[in-house]
Specification:
Elements lengths: L9 H6 L9 E2 L10 E4 L3 E5 L5 E4 L1 H11 L6 H4 L1 E2 L7 E2 L5 E9 L1 H13 L6 H16 L2 E7 L4 E10 L1 E7 L2 H4 L3 H4 L11 E7 L13 E2 L18 E6 L10 H32 L1 H30 L2 H17 L2 H7 L2 H11 L1 H15 L3 H6 L7 H10 L5 H18 L7 H9 L9 H9 L7 H8 L9 H5 L6 H11 L4 H19 L12 E6 L15 E3 H7 L11 H9 L4 E6 L11 E4 L4 E8 L17 E5 H12 L2 H6 L5
Antiparallel strand pairs: 1-14, 2-3, 3-4, 4-11, 5-10, 6-10, 7-9, 8-9, 10-11, 11-12, 13-14, 13-17, 15-16, 16-19, 17-18, 18-19
Helix pairs in contact: 8-9, 8-10, 8-12, 8-13, 8-16, 12-22, 13-16, 13-21, 15-19, 16-18
């Protein structure tokens, strides 16, 4: 099946200076390295590096799988996982690998369906449209189908995938190697992480996708990337190909200001306080560290990303950059009576609409972070609105992954946030009465006493009582904890937001803004890439040093093993090293570790292949620098950096530390 449009190729990117560095450009199967690239359930990217289904990605992409395999007796996060034979490769239940087989422009077809459904008076949103078209293409092709809206519905594309469900973990180094520097070095440069993991995809004997079976065989890879041990140097071209998750490059100045001043500061401050509570317990108890490491890792990554994004919006003047674009857009709109009638007040309407929701959104964010995401138990309690045996059984199993001391402290934090950051007029009757019960005449609430009231006799903190619920008992219905966390829903805030917006619905305004900007750029012949949306994309960059960072120190383009030894600190979990690894690293201080490029990446690109000008695998993208964190809405040339693990460091680790000689043979690396 052939695409109806000519999508970007490496040759085009190399020959068009205007496209250098910025842009996540669409690609199709059969172009460049596309057939060697896979999505890992649209959360990360990976690449085939052998003929036998071997895939390389980042360790942090495999983190949850390694965590899931770990026990107190076999802690693979701390000790690493190395399958020394095929028999030791560990199946990962529920894991999927998606291989793109076709990308089709279905805009005309989508528009016809929308027009027909509207004529018949049927509601037509993206979910309904996706259902209809995906069903059709899946039935016609036998492939998994996924519809993507580009430029807010200006174009539509259908991606067709083969999905493989038998995926097995082959190799994952300890976190002290893969995540050296931990959260402290996250989004920083220089870094010194060997952030890689290996999976193998299995198929039925005939090569077709199949659920896990002992009879399955390694997949015959449709294409593989050759590994380069030549390294890269400043000025070298690099290409990153993968599945970036989402960007918002068509954001208006009003939206940027909202995210900078309201959305991100509100959420990150609360997430930071939760992290302090959890980390305090993790540092005290290794068992708690194991239980909460995956959750803490995810929370920390998002919190630091959004805090850095807000800071970079301010540092790089992103709001002002967007306003300059809008000046050009308004001039273009005003030059046509038709456009003026359609979009004449659009920019003003966006500004007014965003400012009108500032207060209610502050409260919505606080409610979501404290009420819905405050504790793991409150999340589970919310699922008991109607008696659910499944919910009870999930909670019983969930006790394996929580510590009740941590959860109690998180409850105390949540109660204070709800009281101080959410207007009590939004409260349900039980919540309102509970706060009144523990608040004195001066308006001061005793959060410790309130925590005890909700917690001490709580059904949800006694596993045996939840087992009663799973067996059919309704003893939770009079439980104060249950009544508290089912007494409000997010809809009260959404309804208030809808009332405030009135006819100026922000979703519709943002869509119209994207349409107007897209049409202007098309009319002016300006090459325009769509926002990332978990479809395959290719970016071009160069290996180069960073411009002046926040502290005024200019760092080079490469880090080496010398930096690992210099950062080593046995008193710090993030900078500790295993003795054998430390000795090996100390013996080779010039060993290349990480490097940086100008490639345009975002979340979802983790694990993406970094390919050199000869089409060989030179590294893996695993992070960005702090200066790149405005990249959701704006690419800042010279500052935005893609942080990559040097493939030579990966090979060195496989050879010298893991001693996986059979893997080196498989990827054609001589000993």
């Amino acid at each position: 099946m052939k695409s109806k449009i000519l999508l970007t190729s490496v040759a085009v990117l190399l020959s068009t200076a205007a496209l250098a560095d910025e842009g996540m450009w669409m690609v199709s199967p059969g172009q460049n390295f596309a057939d060697a690239v896979v999505s890992l359930d649209f959360g990360c990217s990976g690449s085939f590096i052998s003929d036998n289904g071997l895939i390389i990605t980042n360790h942090h992409c495999a983190y949850s799988d390694v965590y899931g395999l770990s026990t107190n007796e076999h802690n693979y996060l701390e000790d690493g996982f190395w399958a020394m034979t095929a028999a030791e490769e560990a199946p990962i239940p529920g894991k999927g690998i998606q291989l793109l087989r076709a990308m089709i422009d279905v805009t005309d077809e989508a528009n016809e369906i929308v027009a027909k459904e509207k004529l018949e008076g049927k509601p037509m949103g993206i979910r309904r449209l996706s259902y209809l078209l995906e069903k059709k293409y899946k039935e016609e092709t036998g492939l998994e189908a996924s519809l993507s809206s580009m430029w807010a519905g200006s174009r539509y594309y259908m991606a067709l995938y083969v999905e493989y469900k038998d995926v097995r973990l082959v190799a994952a180094p300890p976190v002290s190697i893969s995540a050296f520097g931990g959260d402290i070095d996250n989004w920083e440069w220089p870094q010194h992480k060997c952030d890689f993991a290996l999976y193998r995809v299995y198929s039925a004997p005939d090569g077709s996708p199949a659920e896990y079976s002992a009879d399955n065989v390694p997949l015959k890879s449709p294409m593989k990337l050759e590994i380069s041990l030549d390294g890269v140097a400043p000025g070298d071209s690099t290409f990153v190909i993968g599945y970036p998750g989402s960007t918002d490059r068509f954001a208006s100045s009003a939206k940027v200001a909202y995210k900078r001043d309201i959305k991100y500061p509100c959420s990150t401050s609360l997430q930071g306080r939760k992290m302090e509570i959890i980390k305090g317990w993790m540092d005290r108890d290794p068992e708690i560290r194991l239980k909460y490491s995956d959750y803490f890792f995810s929370l920390s990554n998002v919190q630091e990303l959004r805090a850095g994004e807000a800071a970079c919006y301010a540092r790089f003047g992103v709001e002002e950059e967007k306003k300059a674009i809008e000046d050009e857009l308004q001039e273009w709109i005003d030059a046509s009576e038709e456009r003026s009638a359609k979009w004449g007040t659009l920019l003003r309407d966006l500004d007014v609409a965003y400012k009108s929701i500032y207060d209610v959104d502050r409260q919505t964010i606080a409610f979501r972070e404290a009420f819905y995401n405050g504790t793991k138990l409150s999340i589970m309690a919310g699922r008991f609105g109607n008696h659910s045996k499944d919910a009870a059984e999930r909670l019983v199993k969930g006790y394996e992954d929580i510590d009740l001391r941590v959860e109690r402290d998180l409850l105390r934090f949540s109660l204070e946030v709800i009281d101080t950051k959410v207007d009590h007029s939004f409260f349900g009757p039980f919540i309102k009465a509970t706060y009144a019960k523990f608040t004195d005449d001066g308006g001061k609430c005793d959060y410790d006493a309130m925590t005890s009231y909700l917690w001490d006799d709580c059904v949800f903190v006694v596993p045996s009582r939840i087992e009663e619920v799973a067996a059919g008992s309704h003893i939770y219905e009079d439980d104060p904890f249950f009544k508290f966390f089912t007494d409000m829903k997010i809809t009260v805030f959404n309804n208030e937001k809808t009332r405030i917006e009135g006819d100026k619905d922000l979703t519709a305004l943002n869509r119209e803004y994207t349409h107007a900007l897209y049409e202007m750029r098309m009319e002016k012949g300006i090459p325009t890439y769509p926002d990332a949306n978990s479809t395959m994309r290719l970016t071009r960059g160069t290996v180069s040093s960073s411009l002046e960072p926040r502290d005024g120190v200019v760092y080079g383009w490469q880090s080496t093993a010398r930096g690992i030894i210099e950062k080593y600190d046995p008193t710090s979990y993030d900078f500790s090293l295993k003795d054998d690894w430390r000795a090996m690293i100390a013996a080779e201080p010039a060993l290349p570790v990480n490097f940086i490029t100008d490639n345009d990446i975002t979340g979802g690109n983790s694990g993406s292949a970094v390919v050199d000008g000869s089409g060989r695998l030179a590294g893996l993208a695993f992070d960005g620098n702090k200066e790149s964190l405005a990249g959701d809405s704006s690419f800042t040339g010279g500052y935005n950096k893609c942080v990559c693990v040097d493939i030579r460091f990966v090979v060195w680790t496989l050879r010298n530390y893991a001693k996986l000689d059979y893997i080196l043979d498989e990827i054609n690396i001589s000993k």
